[in-house]
Give the backbone structure.
Amino acid sequence: DAMVIQNPRYQVTQFGKPVTLSCSQTLNHNVMYWYQQKSSQAPKLLFHYYDKDFNNEADTPDNFQSRRPNTSFCFLDIRSPGLGDAAMYLCATRGREGIQYFGAGTRLSVL
Amino acid sequence: TQLLEQSPQFLSIQEGENLTVYCNSSSVFSSLQWYRQEPGEGPVLLVTVVTGGEVKKLKRLTFQFGDARKDSSLHITAAQPGDTGLYLCAAQSRAGGYQKVTFGTGTKLQVIP
């Protein structure tokens, strides 16, 4: 059974049209992450949460925002998607043992 | 900034061949993970190594953590098409009081039937 669930799996949006990607987890982990991954590259960390404590990577564009209303859910908002934002977006959690558990990802296309 | 360099970056081999992927850093890590990611999916954890010199086996995959805990290798014996994917090493560090995971640069493996 999937423990980190991302919806939708595929998202198409238009240039400049806001889009929200969602992630939920059944692991009750305190830490959640959002990554951006472009083709055949390593995932690039955008944000992470320790409980509700939000941490933004220094090079994450202002265009990207995140919300975590409770332990189980986390959202990635892209306010004005550009063509360069087309990528796979991965959500992950981390347990006390230090291991990350990834969702299957949302592939975002920007037209 | 810690950097994890993987080599090779790309590898295309015939079914049945053996291969080794390397993950190197100048930093010491408390633990290191290996993930495999198939196209259109999220990374899936293969193994975690913790102790310097540790060797772990997962069927045809053998993982080794360097004695100094700065590097690791993944060896696949008799590769199969199902091994195709992006292999990522990842290590943990502390940044600003938080645990942060750094991913390696990735190795894209293609196993040709």
